[in-house]
Amino acid sequence: MIEMKRSKMPTFLKDKKKTWTDSFVNGSDFSWHNKQKELLELLKNMTASHCAFCDDVLVPKGSDNGEIEHFRPKEKFKHFAFAWANLYPICRSCNGTKNDRFDKLLLRPDEKDFCFSDWFRLDPSTFELKPVKIGNPNWGRAKITIELYGLNEKKTTRRQFEHDNIVKNNYQTKDNQPFRFMN
Length: 183
Ligand SMILES: [Zn+2]
Known about the structure:
By secondary structure, the protein is mostly helical. The protein contains six helices and four strands. It has helices at residues 11-25, 36-45, 92-98, 116-119, 140-148, 156-167, and strands at residues 67-70, 87-90, 120-122, 129-131. The model has no long low-confidence stretch (mean pLDDT 94).
């Protein structure tokens, strides 16, 4: 989870948000109204095409081009289904693990003054993320974020693999590199 700056809400969303939200709240099936692709690209622009939570890369021609995360799950918080600030680019793995769970303590990569190293550290022997507890009375927020997005469940093997790539200088730019917090 690397700090990210949220761009302005796209105009089409501003124009349609109320109509789409009303229809969903009133019982229609959820739909992106053919704007899913466009929205996903706008969201990915904010993270240089990384998952907003585990920071793996979302590659256009790979197996995982990314999905749109409803931070507050849309079935439980229908009014937030089209709220721009509720949407993040996410990888399939994180999205599948979190599913429709939510906790108000969850960290957001675009919250004020968010900085990866204030909250998480990488254990160099296990490649697991650990909450930073020292000087951080709110470290439980990092713990629940790790749990709900499964940031250790499926990702430690990937991190180990990519660590070797980083050491070998296999990435020309940091934006191409998964898990940007690893160097
Ligand atoms: Zn992810």
